[in-house]
Design a protein that fits this description.
The model has no long low-confidence stretch (mean pLDDT 97). This protein is 49% helix and 14% strand. The relative contact order is 0.14. It has 9 helices and 7 strands, in the order βαβαβαβααβαβαααβ. The protein has one domain: NAD(P)-binding Rossmann-like Domain (Rossmann fold). The chain has a 7-stranded parallel β-sheet, with helices on both faces. The protein is globular and about 55 Å long.
């Protein structure tokens, strides 16, 4: 236990796997009491057990943040379990890839429902507590918000909206004493990346390690990231050492973002 976050209570959404699970584990390892949230109850229970086995303190509430009342429930559960939140990490949400002409209105609506509106609602619900406690919000967006691609029209649009929301709320945070920042992960070794890697390896009839090397070379990046890389940056952001960060949008992508 590092102890930088002793006495703090954190909410991490989309924390049953991947980046969110790593963030929850890292915050707990640094002393925070963590509430995990996602839709899969079994995976959440597994994550809570893992954190507890490592000496951390965690609880979980399975909710679907696409539902309007879910954010309020999550904040109320957190306050009742560990006390009002000091930290909110908005990580939940995946968007559908595909050719623009094949993406339906429902695909677009679903893409915004969880990742964007879920973030907006949870931030709004937690804000009075964050204001009272000088808390922190970290939005996990993605490099597609700054470098959208033809098969990532929904994701790029949602991520760009999240970055705009981050900047707007950072100004509100200056007024109210709440820290607000965002991280843009690049290619991270999540289940989604593993599926993409396996698909490309099969299509090209090459081993997985060769397919990964080609992704790194074609993207002109240093390496594929690990969920723990993002978790480490979140932990720094919300720690006392990171408090000067306000309205920051940090690309943690191995050099994938080529724009200024």
């Amino acid at each position: 236990m590092d102890g930088r976050l002793d006495g703090k209570t954190a909410i991490v959404t989309g924390s049953n796997r991947g980046i969110g699970r790593a963030i929850a584990g890292r915050l707990a390892s640094e002393g925070a009491r963590v509430v995990l949230s996602a839709r899969d109850e079994a995976l959440l229970a597994s994550a809570v057990k893992e954190i507890g086995a490592a000496g951390g303190c965690a609880a979980a509430l399975p909710v679907d943040l696409r539902n309007e009342e879910a954010a309020v429930r999550l904040v109320e559960f957190t306050a009742a379990t560990y006390g009002p939140p000091d930290i909110v990490v908005n990580n939940a949400g995946a968007t559908k890839r595909g050719d623009f002409l094949e993406l339906s209105d429902e695909d677009w609506s679903d893409g915004f429902a969880l990742k964007f509106f879920g973030t907006v609602r949870l931030t709004r619900s937690a804000w009075p507590h964050l204001k009272e406690r000088g808390g922190s919000v970290v939005n996990i967006s993605g490099v597609g918000g700054r470098m959208p691609g033809p098969y990532f029209a929904i994701g790029g649009s949602v991520n760009a909206a999240l970055l705009s929301f981050t900047k707007a709320m950072a100004d509100v945070g200056i007024r109210d004493g709440v820290q607000v920042n965002a991280i843009n992960p690049g290619s991270i070794r999540t289940d989604r990346f593993r599926r993409l890697l396996a698909q490309q390896a099969a299509e090209q009839s090459i081993p997985l390690e060769h397919a990964e090397r080609k992704i790194v070379e074609n993207s002109k990046i240093t390496r594929i990231g690990e969920p723990e890389d993002i978790a480490a940056l979140v932990a720094f952001m919300v720690s006392p050492e990171g408090r000067l960060l306000q309205g920051a949008i940090i690309d943690m992508d191995g050099g994938a973002t080529k724009v200024i």
